[in-house]
Design goal:
The chain is α/β, with parallel strands linked by helices and 351 residues long. It has 10 helices and 12 strands. The radius of gyration is 19 Å and the shape is globular. It binds iron/sulfur cluster (SF4).
């Protein structure tokens, strides 16, 4: 399955090889297993792979270059990412196409990433025909490259800003982390992506719990929305082998409040200026009448994974348990049941 022919370096390399999330490998019947409460994945999450790995050095990421070990064996968003050859991936995707609503190609920081991503978009578009998202690597890209992704056939694109503000970004990903990324360039590229792909077709990954205040993160979510983009929210999880491996996730209440604010902002139901915060930056008022807010909480929708849509689902990219284990679900990969809503309600008032 992962034969080693036709590759340029000493290990599997894109575009002939890709890594995929464990959930994706299970969906394609390449790995056995069932998820807790029978969670299903609707987006094939693929990751470019190179023998030298990612050139980034983000403090919270399991793929950081300063971490020992082979790139393909490192974990990322809580799970392993096994490597398969492209032909196997396409064959298995066609066999299981009925289960999927989207494909995502995640670039990493590597000189060949753009050229290979363009080739892969064309190949998946022609051979599989599912909508394609690209999680871009802005550091090695220009505005013209964003347009090239669209021209090649990507339907959506996202920037993993991850941090709410410039100081935190610099500390975790930029000069302060001996990393190559720069906040201003990421923000410019997100604005460019929103302009090129159009309203609601650009996404911004943001992580809750990396030292920011709720107010700061919600303000950023509003700024993303003001560009015409939407936020794909994650709860920080201490990734094994990363520099933050010993840190703790944020309190569940903090994540729940930010999830609720994100849902209201991205669905144009409320705005940051209408919200209120206490002296520690925690949200105290979501800017909606109490009965409306209660209705949205009871729907459970604000607490489900936020990501690119597909197949009539608000989020096709539901990344089961990508930011918390089943015992501490942060982003629900399925609709909430009454017991889940009761738990969330309790968490909203805590922390
Ligand atoms: S939300 Fe999912 S599909 Fe969309 S860019 Fe992010 S990882 Fe890819």
């Amino acid at each position: 399955m992962t034969t080693m022919k036709n590759q340029p370096g000493p290990g599997p390399s894109s575009p002939d090889y890709l890594q995929m999330s464990l959930a994706a490998a299970m969906t394609l019947n390449l790995k056995e297993g069932l998820f807790f409460r029978n969670a299903r994945l609707y987006c094939l999450n693929l990751l470019l792979t190179y023998p030298g790995g990612c050139m980034g050095n983000c403090s919270y990421c399991g793929l950081q270059k300063s971490r020992d070990g082979a790139f393909a064996e490192k974990s990322f968003i809580r799970v392993s990412w096994p490597t398969y050859d492209l032909e196997t991936i396409i064959e298995k995707t066609l066999e299981n196409r009925h289960k999927l609503h989207r494909i995502c190609l995640s670039m990493i920081t590597h000189p060949r990433a753009l050229e290979d991503t363009l080739a892969l978009i064309r190949r998946f578009r022609e051979d599989v025909g599912l909508p394609i998202s690209v999680l871009m690597n802005p550091t090695s890209m220009t505005a013209a490259d964003v347009a090239a992704l669209r021209q090649a056939g990507a339907q959506m694109a996202a920037v993993a800003l991850d941090l709410a503000g410039e100081d935190l970004f610099d500390r975790h990903r930029g000069a302060g982390a001996r990393g190559p990324h720069r906040f201003a360039h990421y923000w410019t590229m997100l604005a460019e992506t929103a302009a090129v792909f159009g309203r609601n077709k650009a996404g911004c990954h943001l992580i809750c719990g990396l030292g920011e205040r709720e107010e700061e993160l919600v303000q950023r979510i509003q700024a993303v929305r003001d560009l015409g983009a939407r936020t794909h929210l994650f709860s920080f999880y201490p990734e094994k082998g990363s520099r933050l491996a010993q840190d703790l996730p944020c309190p569940a209440g903090q994540y729940r409040r930010v999830q609720l604010a994100r849902f209201l902002i991205d669905n144009d139901l409320s705005h940051f200026p209408n919200m209120a915060f206490d002296a520690r930056g925690r949200i105290t008022d979501f800017g909606l009448p109490p009965e409306d807010l209660a209705r949205w909480i009871d729907s459970g929708r604000p607490f489900m994974t936020s990501g690119c849509p597909g197949g009539g689902l608000e989020t096709a990219c539901n990344r089961p348990f990508g930011d918390g284990p089943p015992s501490d679900i942060r982003s629900y990969p399925f609709p909430l049941e009454a017991g889940d809503v009761a738990r969330v309600r309790e968490q909203l008032g805590n922390g």
